[in-house]
Specification:
About 45% of the residues lie in helices and about 20% in strands. The protein is an alpha/beta fold and about 325 residues long. β8, α8 and β9 (about 235-240) form a beta-alpha-beta unit.
Amino acid sequence: MTLAITKFAKAAVAAALFGAAATALAQPAIIYDMGGKFDKSFNEAAYRGIERWKQETGKNYLEFEISNDTQRVQAIRRMAERGANPIISIGFAQGSALDQVAKEFPKSNFAIIDMVVNQPNVQSVVFKEHEGSFLVGAMASLASKSGKVGFIGGMDIPLIRKFQCGFEQGAKAANPKAEVSANMTGTTASAWNDPTRGGELAKAQFSKGVDVIFAAAGGTGAGVYQAAKDAGKLAIGVDSNQNHMQPGTMLTSMVKRVDVAVYNVLKSYKPGMSALGLKEGGVDFAMDQHNAKLVTPAIKAKADAYKADIIAGKIKVADFMADNACKY
């Protein structure tokens, strides 16, 4: 009996040590979507968030960059099989893949940025893009000399319509007579990485008198910004602070703090859904040395006033995704 107990105790200790070692060795994983981690936009913001965590903790992480639609399920599953914890999927396009794999690995922790996946082992972080887009829409109208502003989206999906709707509301709030032109780049994932098409759409809008364009189109935006520079017009960046891409051309950028979302998941994992807006510091407009001369004190003051009113609830910005329509 004593021998059996001793063997059992040793086995229990070994199991405990193995479990502790496994926990200690567990690394988080991040899976970037189409465009790669250095897209100067959404993915790159996520990269900055996990790098901040790495620098603070001294720990490493696993990563993978999706290059085609078929890789999503396989990439998430492979990270789960390797014991990564948590596994963070970047972008709404990974939603269905994550939903599938999260069911297969109920004891693993997953997270997704920019989409909601209703599984008990998934933390979903989304943003109130319409609030930030309202602010840059107002700034566009205030900076416009023609009274005509434009929007160029990437893939034509409700999320990008949400950006467009917020932008329109802000533009009309600042100037009720403002004219807003809008185009989407396409209906497939390639719409996120087509700067040539972005440039063509921008040139067409400029020919109609538009003099400020907000691009919510991932890598396609680079073409919009180049066209704005060439035409002597203004552009507005998205997701990351893109003011540096064309200094003197970029009026501002509507930043989504994807970096903060990723960092927060790693610091305090919690299944469920959270939405980050102006109040939570999840979205904002970017100010730095690259656009300081373009944003006059009057424009900055007006944008700050709108921001305060939205946070206080005095201005309710309509959400396209809530109504599947832009009702304001």
